[in-house]
Amino acid sequence: MCEKIPAAILSESEQTVEVLRKYLDEFGKFVSMTQCCDLSEIFNTLSSIQKSLLIVDISKNFDKYNQFISNISSACPECKIIAISDNPSIEDIVKAMRSGAKDFLPAPVLKSGLFIVLERIFSQLTDKNSVKSKCRVMTVFSNKGGIGKTSIASNLALELAKITKENVALVDLNFQLGDITTFLDLKPSFNISYMLQNPDKINSDFLLNTVERYKNTSLYVIADPPYFKQAENISKTQIIKLFDKLKETFSYVVVDTDSTFDNKTVTALDNSDIIFLVTIVNFPALRNCQRILDLFDKLGYDREKTQIVINRYMENDEIKAEDVEKLLEKPVYWKIPNNYFTMMSAINKGVSVAEINPESNVALSYKEFAMSVSDMVYRNKVIKQYSSGIEDEFNNMIRG
């Protein structure tokens, strides 16, 4: 019989605590810890345990408990956190999940819904090879060079790692003229060609211990090959296998491609959850963007898969964002402001824009961009879980 995993329940409702305890006992794979309302004591207890579960009721005193979720998430990476609420606001739930909650359930908690979540969490805590979270693959693309695609990929990936506190992979698929290692001033020991040619040797331990990590963050950079010859004869199958390996380890994969529609670029686009199509506000670039959208339609991509990002945007430009939306018949997802001196200083020093001036308009824009991207993922998860809970409740009512 396997050892039961300790579980802490944090709620200002005694009834909620009692119900959740009964559910945990019935589930049988977790053991409820002695009830305690002192947050520092709970923190110290969970910090001393290798693997644990924390269920937090955020119905009342949201800021207090959301901060506690953040503290536990940072100090106890092997503590899985479930947030519950009897008055769920999408905004609050997204904030809680960004702080570190991995699942959300509406209160009063339904046993069937809780058991599904508990089974998944138990598997994650006991199976080293299990996928810890659903990975989202996003590719930053433009068929026009020189408009800041690599800057966007690098800064977005780094901000995602900082905000979500989860492992993020930044992949350079520009095999001829890749610049990510230059932009981040890295000299990696391994590059993508080794991984593509040795897929059977790639696992989570290899990726987290061998791939170059950017400073003291959870961003891991998979560099382009240093020699052109290493990139020859790379097949679609090899790239798909690499993506599959990355999905087993990372919560987000950000891909920077070159500007041509070669085999590897199309493979990356096909296997992406989100494509950030980058443009600048001038007529030739917008015409290119329009043609790419038409091509994506022919490739069968869902319209929501592609999101428009305007780089170097100035509010006083002759062409406004509204004009871009009208021309492309699609909303603009994000506008990154033009700040030549901050961007060039970051590029020349091989650091992110936030390290040059965290209060600059472009650094704040990248931070908000990453928050919006993570919110998109969290919102979809919250809505799916909440809808599932409502469906379960409706089915139970029918059976009753």
Helices and strands in order:
Layout: E1 5-10, H1 14-27, E2 30-32, H2 39-47, E3 52-57, H3 62-75, E4 79-85, H4 90-99, E5 103-106, H5 111-126, E6 136-141, H6 149-164, E7 168-172, H7 180-183, H8 192-197, H9 204-210, E8 212-213, E9 219-222, H10 236-249, E10 252-256, H11 263-270, E11 274-279, H12 283-298, E12 306-313, H13 321-328, E13 332-337, H14 340-349, H15 353-356, H16 361-399
Parallel strand pairs: 1-2, 1-3, 3-4, 4-5, 6-10, 6-11, 7-9, 7-10, 11-12, 12-13
Antiparallel strand pairs: 8-9
Helix pairs in contact: 2-3, 3-4, 4-16, 6-16
Mean pLDDT: 87
Named CATH architecture of the largest domain: 3-Layer(aba) Sandwich
Total of domains: 2
Q: Which strands sit side by side, in order, in the main sheet?
A: 8-9-7-10-6-11-12-13
Number of H- or I-type helical stretches:
16
The level-1 CATH class of the largest domain: Alpha Beta
**How far apart, in Å, are the first and last alpha carbons?**
35 Å
CATH homologous superfamily title of the largest domain: P-loop containing nucleotide triphosphate hydrolases
Strand content: 15-25%
Main beta sheet: 8 strands, mixed
Spatial extent as radius of gyration: 23 Å
> What percent of residues adopt helix (DSSP H or I)?
40-55%
Low-confidence stretches: 389-400
Structural class, by secondary structure, is alpha/beta
Number of strands: 13
